[in-house]
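Researcher: Go.
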Amino acid sequence: MALIPPKELMRVLSATANAKNILKPGDKIRAVRSNCSSRVRSYTFERWDGNWIVSRSGVNDIAAISIDLVNGIPVDFTLPCVVSLEEAQQVYAENQRRMNQLFQEPIEYDRSVPF
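Model: Structure:
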């Protein structure tokens, strides 16, 4: 068993602590499983088994540090957590609404300026 360098261990523990504060049963997560380093899969979060995530289907070797999406929202659990998932979802939805609105409005060009 290899020892994890202290900095990496701090990142893993930080990601786990942040994920434990945010994930709720039923959340859809996307992650790379510990034993399949190149396969990205989607799971439904069910519970914690120590510091490992257990999915509804029984997969029990998902690490919080490997999660990149929660309910379709990009996340990085290694960063300090300053907002709740609900707040992040609201901001994400508002940004999507603004982008959709922006692209639906006709673009007016100044025809006096040559290309």
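Model: The helical segments are 6-22, 85-104.
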